[in-house]
Amino acid sequence: MAATRTGTSALLEQLRADGMTTIFGNPGTVEQGLLDALSSAGDFRYVLGLAEAPVVGLADGYARATRRPTLVQLHSGVGLGNGIGMMYQAMRGHAPLVVIAGEAGVRYDAFDAQMAADLVGMARPVTKFATRVVDPGSVLRVLRRAVKIAATPPCGPVFVSLPLDVLDAPNDEPALPTVIPDTRTVPVPELVARAAGLLAGAKRPIIVAGDGVAESDAQYELTRVAELLGAEVWLADSSVVNIDAGHPLHRGALGHMFGEASAAAVREADAVLIVGTYVFPEVFPSMRSPFAAGARVVHVDLNAYEIGKNHPVDLGLVADPRATLTALAADLERRGAPAAPARPRAQAAPAGESVYELFLAELAAQQPDAVVFDEALTSSPALVRHFPPRRPGRYFLTRGGSLGVGIPGAIGVKLAMPDETVIGFTGDGGSMYTIQALWTAAHQRIGAKFVICNNGRYELLNENISVYWRERGVAPHPFPSSFDLSGLPLGFTDLARGMGVQAVRVAEPEDVGPAVKRMLADDEPFLVDVAVDVPPPPNGKD
């Protein structure tokens, strides 16, 4: 008599049908049947992380690089809870993660037993879709629905709870490839013409663009429209290359912390085109519209929720950025209106002679085409001077506000791009949220490189509280001691070696050359702990 096909076996068939054979996870008892089946299958790769936050960070980097739905396995309520911070990061960054977690079984619901929790309720605030499978005949139907939702723009994480008894039950569902809806839509011609009419002829036009541009592969089309309008391009909620950073119309990123920074950049515009982003992604946004009175605002995005959400617009188009920008460019060309001249671009501050600057200069000289994962935070401006984000697929910036994505994110990108040199930059504070991910790099022989920008403090908090003091008329004084990490220095080289990753410390100029040479000598994981100078506190004392 042939063995009965279980829900677990059916689940693996569905994952194969969708090409989801790389799984990021941390094991647990209630998932033991699935993990046993995965171990026996020869065509799956299980990427083990030592804690749930690194696991989700690994998957986030992999999904960003592959741009495909990626499976994450967490353990019941405790594992899901530990991963929620990074799931928030994935939600804000629109990563198509399919997160699953096991439960002991539906039949135990009445017992309120050990590890029992409302997994769906926990996951719902940080996902596009969260559900629990209770019918053994609907495992694959629900999983396909989850994959479809995760991978349909605007992409984002989803969650499915899979009780053990549901997966152990017989299952005769067919495993079929999930159908992802095609969202390459363009507005009707009358609306394209209206958008062009609102933007054409503006004396001070600007474009605010975000990751929806890159998701639509619309970098060329965005650049063409900017050139036709003579519009400066500002980036909001932008974590990849949406326009070449070397283009003369590129103006950089708007503020992510305080609304006044964004308002200062856009307040003089008389026409604004918003594409593929929400406005504005700040922690402390302006309560008033930052746009000038009478400014004409057009917003193009596949995410209808974001259009006009915070500030009124004159025209909102729920449409694919690439197709819409193509049509808009054609309309602008037909009008034949001359492009408004762009203002001279501000020059970047010259590089200093700090050890960190010397290290970046040497690294860029030896490996100028490296793929960069940037969680350097306050050390990022120097990083992008030496590694400017110019080509799609070569630069990934942290997004969402969850510290700790730099190390696992770089590992995930390297796993997706094994032939590239991938370097993750993070801070001494942020790295400690997910330092365990170094073990995964060593254990799985994933040759990502890591740079710890070590300034001995949570420098971003120092910068932010300085703004807080200034806004409230508080005299500068010593920073809170809770922002200081220098009392007992973190031994990053020892931590790395303890998890199987070779490492060096760079504290003096003479350390730079040998460190970079060793870092790039092979395709094994390697960590460099670089001393970063920081400005003195307001009163000159720590």
From TrEMBL:
Gene3D superfamilies: 3.40.50.970, TPP-binding domain (3.40.50.1220). Residues 192-328 form the Thiamine pyrophosphate enzyme central domain. Transmembrane segments: none annotated. Keywords: Thiamine pyrophosphate. Pfam families: TPP_enzyme_C (PF02775), TPP_enzyme_M (PF00205), TPP_enzyme_N (PF02776). Residues 6-110 form the Thiamine pyrophosphate enzyme N-terminal TPP-binding domain. It comes from the Bacteria. CDD domains: TPP_BFDC (cd02002), TPP_PYR_POX_like (cd07035). Residues 383-530 form the Thiamine pyrophosphate enzyme TPP-binding domain. InterPro entries: DHS-like_NAD/FAD-binding_dom, THDP-binding, Thiamin_PyroP_enz_cen_dom, Thiamin_PyroP_enz_TPP-bd_dom, TPP-bd_CS, TPP_enz, TPP_enzyme_TPP-bd. Belongs to the TPP enzyme family. This is Benzoylformate decarboxylase. It comes from Streptosporangium pseudovulgare. The gene is mdlC.
